[in-house]
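User:
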Amino acid sequence: MSRQQYLFTSESVSEGHPDKVCDRISDAVVDLFLAADPQSRAAVETLTTTNRVVLAGETRGPSSVNDEVIEQAARECVKQIGYEQEGFDWRELDFQCYLHEQSSDIAQGVDASDQKDEGAGDQGIMFGYACTETEDFMPAPIHYSHRILQDMASARHSGAAPLLGPDAKSQVTLLYENGVPVKATSVVVSTQHTENASQEEIRELVRGFVTDVLPEGWMPAEDELYVNPTGRFVVGGPDGDAGLTGRKIIVDTYGGAAPHGGGAFSGKDPTKVDRSAAYATRYLAKNIVAAGFAPWVDIQISYAIGVALPQSIYVNVDDKNPIAGDQIEAILPKVMDLTPAGIRDHLKLDRPIYAKTAAYGHFGREPGEDGTFTWEKTDLIDALKAAL
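Assistant: Predicted structure:
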């Protein structure tokens, strides 16, 4: 029997968090290659520290995407995030690029004369999840953690909150009763701020964002709202802590409410199933829940490098769900081609759409007219119902 009452916590980090700066740069490089040639390959890792950005990894694409173009894109990412501080400034930082050609051993396993026979870019397991806790079919703790930071970032960029800096983290703990979130018991927000801002000013500012985001009546007690608990957060971003691509995989997905296969997304072109198959399983999970098949669903899929078809598909639903997991498993290959090429074609992933995914989660986002977040569409409902 599931627990009647429990607490669950998820965290988010802002676009100015050191690791997210790296994710943004890595995805911007992926976008550069895909914009130049949709058949490009990229696996880009970024390191940031005090006034330094270092890139490493493997690529295959047009020579027009050279080190100079990549450096310009990296600096633009830092500028757009908002770093013009002494220890990390888009104009002054030292940039080093160590990208090299993709291994031919990897390429021969992925490429094929017939695209439908293209193999997966690596072995691995990927998970997708959806539930009815929020309108975007995401777990509530990660949903509200993201929203707090998104609203703070919007106010900072617009000039409405000039005391705030780019680096920030949030953490939301919710009380669940009978499997349903009913209120927040604590909220933690740590945000970089200007030198002259007082703790009281920052607390009052942050309280407003939290109040606006949480549903009415969900605010925790005043002593359970923790704002900059250390009392000061002026030095932030890569100047305060080193950053690396791919270190925030739980923030990127479901906040710990669902399993994770272990592979990061950012910096990888869509032939890498760590990314594309995770998007596909989220797409399937969201459509399953939106179709009313289950109040929550967890999907696992696995691949072998160089092999097109999945090694396994597993669907987990509540034991008492009217539609069993194995029934859903049987129809998924009928409604979507789950080969790497099939996923990319269905979700239109061979496009420069990835920089926008680098912060505030890859899931629970609105599909854009520019082709971003196609995996968040609920256009598979009729096909699922017909197949079942």
